[in-house]
C-alpha cells in the first residue's frame, strides 16, 4: 500500500503542532455547527452509540458528540492536537487515516470534517477502503471538505507557520465518483461558505454498503 509522501505528512504534522493553541481558542462557523448537529440527529435516530473522528484537531467536535451520549474515539496526526483532545477527556490517539486499522475495532459512525482534503488524489481510494474497514455494517460516515475544482497544491500560511500544507480538491462529479466506489452516498451538498472565493464546501453523508450475499 502506498503511503503519503513523508514530506507532506511531516509538514502537516509540524504545521498543526504549531497551530494547536490557536485552534483551541477559535470558534466554529455556524454552518459547521449545523452539519455537526444534523449528523448527531441521524446517529441518535438510528440508535448509534460509537463514533470515530478522523483528524480531530483540538477535539471540539469529539467533545460535542461525547457530551451528547456517544462513545467517542479521536485520532489526529499532531501530538499537540491529541494533547488538547485528552485535556478535554476524549479518548485520543496520535494516528492518521492510514493507520485506523491499528485501533482494532469498528465504529457505527465516522466523522471527518476538513481532514481528508489533505489526502493526495491517488491515495484517496485506499484511505476510503481503510475507513470502510473500521465502519460497522449500516454505519454512517460524514466527510466534509472544501472543493469545487480539481487541483492539488501546497499552501503556506506565513503568519502562523513556515510549513506548507498539502490540499487536494475535487469537483462535485469527481468526488462523487470516487466516494461511490466505496460507500453508498445518502446526500451530497455543495455550497459557498467562502464569501465568493473559488473553493466551496462539500458535505457528503454516506453509509457502508451492504455486504454482498
Which features characterize this protein?
213 residues, alpha/beta, Rossmann fold, two-stranded antiparallel sheet, 6 helices, 9 strands, 33% helix
How would you characterize the overall build of this protein?
By secondary structure, the protein is of the alpha/beta class. It has one domain (6-208): Rossmann fold, CATH 3.40.50.150. 33% of the residues lie in helices and 30% in strands. The protein contains six helices and nine strands. It has helices at residues 6-24, 30-45, 60-67, 79-87, 124-133, 172-180, and strands at 50-54, 71-76, 91-94, 107-113, 135-147, 151-155, 165-169, 183-191, 200-208. The strands form two sheets. Strands 3-2-1-4-5-9-8 form a seven-stranded mixed β-sheet, with helices on both faces. Helix 1 (6-24) runs parallel beside helix 4. The mean pLDDT is 90.
Principal-axes geometry comes out as globular
Strands of the largest sheet, in order across it?
3-2-1-4-5-9-8
Model regions low in confidence, pLDDT < 50 over at least 5 residues: none
Instruction: Using the 3D structure, state the CATH architecture.
Output: 3-Layer(aba) Sandwich
Structural class by SSE content: alpha/beta
Domain count: the total is: 1
Q: Helix and strand string, N-terminal first? A: HHEHEHEEHEEEHEE
Q: Work out the helix count.
A: 6
User: What name does CATH use for the topology?
Assistant: Rossmann fold
CATH class category label: Alpha Beta
User: Mind summarizing the main beta sheet?
Assistant: 7 strands, mixed
Number of strands: 9
* Distance N to C terminus: 28 Å
Amino acid at each position: 500500500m502506498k503511503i503519503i509522501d513523508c514530506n507532506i505528512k511531516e509538514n502537516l504534522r509540524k504545521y498543526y503542532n504549531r497551530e494547536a493553541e490557536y485552534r483551541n481558542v477559535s470558534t466554529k462557523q455556524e454552518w459547521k455547527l449545523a452539519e455537526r448537529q444534523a449528523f448527531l440527529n441521524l446517529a441518535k435516530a438510528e440508535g448509534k452509540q460509537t463514533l470515530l473522528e478522523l483528524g480531530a484537531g483540538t477535539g471540539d467536535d469529539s467533545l460535542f458528540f461525547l457530551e451528547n451520549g456517544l462513545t467517542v474515539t479521536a485520532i489526529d496526526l499532531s501530538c499537540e492536537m491529541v494533547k488538547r483532545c485528552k485535556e478535554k477527556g476524549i479518548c485520543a490517539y496520535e494516528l492518521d487515516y492510514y493507520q485506523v486499522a491499528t485501533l482494532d475495532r469498528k465504529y457505527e459512525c465516522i466523522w471527518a470534517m476538513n481532514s481528508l482534503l489533505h489526502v493526495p488524489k491517488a491515495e484517496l481510494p485506499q484511505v476510503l477502503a481503510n475507513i470502510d474497514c473500521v465502519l460497522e455494517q449500516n454505519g454512517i460516515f460524514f466527510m466534509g471538505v472544501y472543493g469545487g475544482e480539481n487541483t492539488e497544491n501546497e499552501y503556506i500560511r506565513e503568519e502562523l507557520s513556515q510549513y506548507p500544507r498539502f490540499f487536494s480538491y475535487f469537483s462535485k462529479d469527481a468526488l462523487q465518483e470516487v466516494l461511490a466506489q466505496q460507500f453508498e452516498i445518502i446526500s451530497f451538498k455543495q455550497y459557498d461558505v467562502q464569501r465568493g472565493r473559488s473553493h466551496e464546501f462539500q458535505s457528503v453523508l454516506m453509509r457502508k454498503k451492504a455486504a454482498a450475499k
